[in-house]
Specification:
The protein folds into two domains: 14-167, UbiA prenyltransferase (Tetracycline Repressor, domain 2, Orthogonal Bundle); 169-294, Up-down Bundle (Four Helix Bundle (Hemerythrin (Met), subunit A)), CATH 1.20.120. Helix 3 (49-73) runs parallel beside helix 7 and helix 13 packs antiparallel against helix 14. It starts with 12 loop residues before the first helix and ends in a 7-residue tail after the last helix. The chain is globular. Residues 1-8 have low confidence and may be disordered. It is mainly α. The protein has helices at residues 13-24, 26-43, 49-73, 75-81, 86-89, 94-112, 117-131, 133-139, 141-162, 170-190, 192-198, 203-207, 209-233, 239-262, 266-287. The chain crosses the membrane at residues 20-43, 50-69, 97-130, 142-163, 169-186, 206-231, 237-260, 272-291. It comes from Acaryochloris marina (strain MBIC 11017). GO terms for molecular function: transferase activity, transferring alkyl or aryl (other than methyl) groups.
Amino acid sequence: MVTLPSSPKQFNFPNLVQGVAQLCRPTLSVLAAMASCLSVFVLQPQTSVWVYLQTATVLICMTAGAFAINDFDDIEKDRINHPERPLPSGTLLPHHAWWIAVMLFCIALGAAIPLGLSCWIVVAISALLLWNYAPILNISGILGNGVVSMIVAALIFFASLVAERPWAMLYPSIFLFFYILAKEIVWDIHDAEGDQQRGVNTIANLWGLTPAFSIAWGLIGLLLISIPLAIARLTMAHPALFGCCAILMLLSYALALWRYQIIQTSQTYTNLIVLGRIGMILGLFGLFGTVPSL
C-alpha cells in the first residue's frame, strides 16, 4: 500500500514547476527528440521544419510521459532507491503524475497523426507498452528490460519511418537496443533492494549481482565486436565517424561500470549515469555515420 502525504509539501507554484520538471526529466526528453530529429536530418536532409517540430513533439511527450507513468508505478520502490524524486518526497501527488502522463501521451499520439499511419502505429504501440510497463514488470523484470530497450531503439526506427527510409537505420537500432539492455541490467543491480521488496524478478535478484554484471559486460563486448564487422560489411556514409564515436561511447561506459562494480556507492553510480549520458550523445552522432548514402 502506498503511504504518501495527503498533500504536497510546501505547495506553491515554484515547487510545483520543479516537481513536474523532476518528474518529466526534460533533459532526457529533449535528448530523445534531438536524437530522432538528427536521424531524420541525416536520412532526408530536405525534410521540412514542420516535420521536425512534429517529430520533436512526439518524442519529447512520449519520453516525458514514460518517466511520469514510471514514477507513478514505482512510488514504493523509489521510496527506497530514490526518495528525492517528486512523488516519494511529497512534492507531487500520484494523481498529478497520472494525469500528466495521460496528457503527454495524448499529445504525442495527436502529433504523430500527420506523420503517417506507420509512425502513428509505432507511437501507439510504444505508448501502450509504456502504460502497461508495471504489469509487464510484475510478470518479469527481464521482460521489462527488453520492453524499455525496444522502445528506446524505436526512437531511431521512428525517425527512419518519418524520413521514409524504414530500413536504413536497422543496424543502429539493433546496436542501441543491446546497449540500453546492458544499462537496464546494471540499473537493476542498483535497484535490487526495491525490486526484491516489490517481488520483481530481475537478473540481479534471480541470479545474483555477479551474473548480472557478467551479462552486461558480455553485451558490451558483443557491441564492440560488431563495430568492425559492421564497418566491413555495411555501406556507411561515414564509417570512421561511427567507429570512433561508438568505441568511445562503449569504453567510457565500461570504465564507469568497472568502477561501479568494484565499489557500489552513490558516487560511482552517479558517475555511471553521467558518463552513460555523455557517451549516449557521442554514440548517437557516431551511429549517424552508419546511414547509407541517398
